[in-house]
Design a protein that fits this description.
Length: 60
């Protein structure tokens, strides 16, 4: 799980505009969008990411 969180955090760090969990998931093979969404929500809670203005979007 820790490796997944690191991978999603790294993918999010490389974006300049708000992205959805589906956008981030496209960069990985065999991943569920719901799992990426949960990781993104966790990163927000931890202060490592933030929510975009549009619902369901995230920024580093």
């Amino acid at each position: 799980m820790a490796e997944r969180v690191k991978a999603v955090n790294g993918a999010l760090a490389s974006v300049k505009q708000p992205v959805t969990a589906a956008d981030v998931a496209k960069g990985f093979a065999r991943v569920k969008v719901a799992d990426v969404g949960e990781i993104l929500e966790t990163l927000c809670t931890m202060g490592h990411a933030r929510r975009g203005q549009a619902e369901g979007t995230f920024l580093p």
